[in-house]
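The protein record quoted in full:

***
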Amino acid sequence: MLDVHDLPGTHMCDEHTLRDAEVAENDAGRITRRQLGVAAAGATLAAVLPKVRAAESLAQVDVRVATPDGEADCYFAHPATGKHPAVIVWPDILGLRPAFRDMGDRLAASGYAVLTVNPYYRRAQSPVVGEGASFRDQATRETVMPLARSLTAETNVTDAKAFVAFLDAQDSVDTSRPIGTTGYCMGGPMTMRTAAAVPERIGAGASFHGGGLATGNADSPHLLVPKMRASFLFAIADNDDQRDPDAKGTLRTAFDDAGLDAEIEVYQGAMHGWCPPDSAVYNEEHAERAWERLLVLFGKAL
């Protein structure tokens, strides 16, 4: 079985996580990949994803963002009228797909101009996996692992700068207000690199079950905190914390030393990958709490 221990700056989706997901998929209180497959036959994931309030009328478009390495295919959603603070969304290891489009729409309906990106654009257009795909499936792992390994801290930075430049050129973006960024799983470190790469524009970041945020490596994301100006939310999976209990303390020290606000919380009972609604370990209660905390952060910082 492929594992991810050699991915740059990450610790996620390993054999322990796969076993946890298998146990959780039998838990009647969670939406499983099988249940989502049935739901998808008659409705989109938007019907599964809870709403925080009535959605605004949205403009939704597929865009291509110029980067130093080509053009990134991304999904851009924002309220149909007015100017709004922008947000960059970095998906998890399965990439840009319907679940993340729906999550982008939900954030846009809360008053943001949201760019959900395909981090794998150099090698593949999105979606790179089919609807209902799970990292537990060997074929899925064999598809996404080479793509994930192709990413580096350097490509994250060049992409982040290109995405910020794209957003700042859009009529729907209020450039007088800071930009936010969110990341899931492998996207967690990307939010931190984004905040450090463009500190004058990134005002808030949020990592949901992010991997490799505080490591012993020379390129560990936590070492970038002194370069940031952003407030952060770290929503940590229970099983991730059990395997790396020191990470949250390392993050706390880094943000305190830099004089930056950071909400760092272990979501007890939530497993790695609990936020996207197409995840085998999706946990609605904890996902909604994380979502509410995100809106509080963005409401204060953007």
Remarks:
- The longest helix spans residues 284-301.
